[in-house]
Amino acid sequence: MSNKKKMWLALLLVAIGLFLLGLYTQQLLYFFVTIGVSFWIRQKGYDSLFKAFDEEQKAKRIRTEGLMKGIREKKGCEKSNRS
To answer: What's the predicted TM-score (pTM) here?
Structure first.
């Protein structure tokens, strides 16, 4: 795990901690800070945190689309053979 990913994970845990602290203390300031940190993580750290996951999902999506295309073509052949 790279240092960049560790930093973003630590910051994410800080945001979660601030959120829970906000729930416990009912102070709006913690919620606003949590929202700001979360948006910052989303903008700057998303690629570091979720790049591998996104690539796996993209490969699965492509494979599934290919399978569905084959199934549709096969069903189309069966319908034309019945007519």
So the answer is: 0.65
